[in-house]
Recover the amino acids of this structure.
């Protein structure tokens, strides 16, 4: 996953990295729905990306679609996705099973400050499915939904998260982005079996896997992307990779502030290890 | 409608540990401001009691302080122990956040200036340093599509130049202490001593390819530039125009129309 510490590493690591995944929202300022133009691209950042795009296939991983937000869908944001995809010809793109846009008591739109999980209810499934279909109709490349990381446990839900993801994928035809670190975080904090969780997902829908490291905060283990993947994440990757028949990418995520700790060598080790798991999984694929 | 209210209640709690504690303590009484179904009410009451809610509150605050701490490091250094209470006040004064880094930083800069204007906070160097850092961020996040500003030079120069193009992203900052000394010391995380030269100083931030140049300029030139950007100066004397071009802040242009402010063809 691209972050601002990586251009130098990427230019010198053509043999290590097969693709670059970017968060498009990092490359523009969203001035809000009432402003024209709403999106202003950061010229200095996009010029770096244009240069990388000539060397690597790009994948988009958005954080601003806010699929789970109540209220009207964000048509302007979808228009921006169309423009971005036209410019950078992404292999595929993705966003999260959560919401970040919320309206205050005066109807003003705010950012929630964190990605807030949605309850896995029929009503939310209908809402998100319609939005996924709108994205698919507008942007001519495969769209994936990423499983949640959640520090709270919303009671009385209609479905489990795997049931919700499977139903969403079945109804819309979208793919899934399986973040195994998210699964590990939730399993560790909420006390469930991570392997059983991934086994409950329709892995034929999974196109991409995310791996990452995390850290303790306020009494919970968090998805902070703070360096190397823990052993449990590697074990979960070993478990799931042979079971994903259409896997196209494994992406290592880390926060740029941890690059001095990881170093280029550390990043390379994580990518090499992920590649080894994938190669072993191809040899021993489980139908 | 209740889904929207449920999401608002959840986000309000994430933004306010105090609200979480109130919901825990008083439940229904606190939630009366939200139009919730019985199931949504039970859900909010449940998550308010969960340990993970504290993590969400901490993450929210971490995410909101990140742009401020990352992009206004010298301002934060000068605020010192007041930083925590000032950001708390800032967040309480306005939940209106987009979490767009540029907007968040500019709003915090405005908030601090208002606090300084009313005398609520005081710092020997705070105003000029905050102005400088906010201007730098405005430059860094500058977007290339803004039209240029055209000023007429009257009379034309002896070479016949008449129209001056000023980069709209140029930022002017005034200091009461010698800027280079002040910023050098703060960058090394040292508080400036009393020996720092004082007076009236001006610097201009201007774009140069991928970089941002910081140029000390004559005070009068800085004031002129500031007035031009506000649209208060329809024309300048050739001497001032030459000085702006020499400083690399402006260049001579040929306008496509003969009005005061219009699109340009750079010469």
């Amino acid at each position: 996953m691209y972050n601002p510490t990586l251009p130098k590493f990427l230019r010198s690591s053509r043999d290590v990295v097969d693709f670059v995944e970017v968060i498009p929202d990092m490359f523009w300022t969203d001035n809000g729905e009432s402003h024209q133009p709403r999106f202003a691209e950061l010229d200095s950042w996009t010029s770096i990306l244009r240069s990388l795009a000539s060397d690597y296939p790009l994948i988009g991983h958005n954080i601003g679609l806010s699929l789970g937000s109540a209220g009207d869908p964000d048509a302007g944001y979808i228009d921006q996705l169309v423009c971005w995809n036209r410019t950078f010809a992404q292999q595929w793109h993705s966003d999260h099973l959560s919401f970040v846009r919320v309206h205050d008591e005066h109807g003003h739109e705010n950012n929630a400050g964190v990605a807030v999980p949605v309850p896995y209810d029929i009503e939310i499934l209908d809402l998100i499915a319609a939005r996924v279909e709108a994205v698919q109709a507008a942007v001519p490349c495969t769209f994936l939904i990423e499983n949640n990381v959640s520090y709270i446990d919303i009671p009385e839900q209609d479905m489990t998260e795997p049931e919700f993801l499977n139903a969403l994928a079945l109804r819309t035809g979208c793919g899934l982005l399986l973040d195994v670190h998210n699964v590990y975080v939730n399993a560790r904090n909420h006390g469930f079996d991570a392997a059983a969780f991934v086994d409950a997902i329709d892995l034929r829908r999974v196109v991409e896997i995310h791996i990452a490291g995390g850290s303790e905060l306020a009494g919970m283990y968090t998805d902070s992307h703070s360096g190397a993947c823990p052993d449990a994440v590697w074990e979960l990757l070993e478990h799931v990779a042979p079971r994903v028949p259409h896997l196209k990418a494994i992406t290592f995520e880390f926060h740029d502030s941890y690059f001095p700790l990881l170093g280029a060598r550390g990043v390379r080790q994580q990518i090499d290890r992920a590649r080894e798991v994938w190669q072993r999984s191809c040899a021993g694929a489980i139908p | 409608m209740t889904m929207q209210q449920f999401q608002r209640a959840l986000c309000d709690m994430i933004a306010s540990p105090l609200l979480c504690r109130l919901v825990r303590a008083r439940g229904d009484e606190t939630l009366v401001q939200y139009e919730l179904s019985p199931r949504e009410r039970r859900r909010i009451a449940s998550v308010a009691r969960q340990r993970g809610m504290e993590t969400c509150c901490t993450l929210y605050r971490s995410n909101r302080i990140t742009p401020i701490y990352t992009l206004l490091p010298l301002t934060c250094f000068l605020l010192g122990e007041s930083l925590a209470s000032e950001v708390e006040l800032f967040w309480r004064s306005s939940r209106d956040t987009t979490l767009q880094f540029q907007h968040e930083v500019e709003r915090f800069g405005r908030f601090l200036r208002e606090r300084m204007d009313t005398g609520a906070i005081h710092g020997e160097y705070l105003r000029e340093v905050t102005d400088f850092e906010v201007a730098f961020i405005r430059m860094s996040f500058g977007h290339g599509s803004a039209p240029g500003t055209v000023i007429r030079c009257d009379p034309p120069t002896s070479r016949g130049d008449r129209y001056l193009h000023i980069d709209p992203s140029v930022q002017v900052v005034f200091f009461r202490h010698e800027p280079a000394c002040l910023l050098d010391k703060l960058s090394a995380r040292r508080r400036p001593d009393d020996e720092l030269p004082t007076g009236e100083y001006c610097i201009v931030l201007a774009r140069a390819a991928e970089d941002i140049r910081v140029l000390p300029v004559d005070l009068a030139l800085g004031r002129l530039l500031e007035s031009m950007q506000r649209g208060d100066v329809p024309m300048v004397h050739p001497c001032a125009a030459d000085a702006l071009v020499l400083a690399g802040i402006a260049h001579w242009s040929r306008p496509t129309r003969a009005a005061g402010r219009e699109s340009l063809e750079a010469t």
Summary: Residues 259-283 of chain A form the longest helix (25 residues). The mean pLDDT of chain A is 94. The longest strand of chain A covers residues 109-117. Chain A touches chain B through 43 residues (CB under 8 Å).
